[in-house]
Amino acid sequence: QVQVVESGGGLVQTGGSLRLSCAASGSTVSIDEYGWYRQAPGKQRELVASVNSGSSTNFADGVKGRFTISRDYAKNTVYLQMNRLKPEDTAVYYCRITSRYRNYYWGQGTQVTVSS
Q1: Alpha carbon distance 10, 20 (integer Å)
Q2: Burial of 59 from C-beta contacts in 10 A (0-12 / 13-18 / 19+)
Q3: Are 6 and 18 spatial neighbours (Cβ–Cβ below 8 Å)?
Q4: Sequence-ordered list of residues with C-beta below 8 angstroms from that of 3, at least 6 positions apart, any chain
Q5: Got the DSSP string for 99-116?
Q6: Radius of gyration of the chain (CA)
Q7: Phi and psi for 66 in degrees, rounded to 5?
Q8: How far apart are the two ends of the chain, measured CA to CA in Å?
Q9: What is d(CA 116, CA 89) in angstroms, rounded to the nearest whole number?
């Protein structure tokens, strides 16, 4: 089992920045991939960015060039740096951890609100 805790959300103005953190605990040796997802009201949850055990990253088209993802292996933590935020980035952001055995673990989510 892996426990997932997100933090770092909040209210920011358009053009501002936030950094989200996703901290894992428990069976961390089994972790393969971290992914950040978001869900806006009335919309489906979507992938924002991910990083795997080989440090390969993937980004949604709408955040490329604005968001970066980094992984601290020693701390079992992944960070999502969000720059030049837009109102359409407003959503609840979730961290999902995928284990080597293809088990998925979700955090409770953190709210990001971008005011215009």
Answers
A1: 10
A2: middle
A3: no
A4: 24, 25, 26, 105
A5: ETTS-EEE---EEEEEE-
A6: 13
A7: -115, -35
A8: 40
A9: 11
Residue with tokens 């933090």: 7
What residue type is 79 in one-letter code? Y
Q: What is the pLDDT of residue 34?
A: 97
> Nearest 5 degrees, angle CA 37-CA 39-CA 40?
145
> Side chain identity at 28, as an amino acid letter?
T
Tell me if 11 sits within 8 A of 111, measured CB to CB. no
Which amino acid is located at 116 in the chain? Answer: S
Tally the residues of the chain. 116
Which amino acid is present at 1?
A: Q
pLDDT in tens for each of the 116 residues of the chain? Answer: 999 999 999 999 999 999 999 999 999 989 999 999 999 999 999 999 999 999 999 999 999 999 999 999 999 999 999 999 999 999 999 999 999 999 999 999 999 999 99
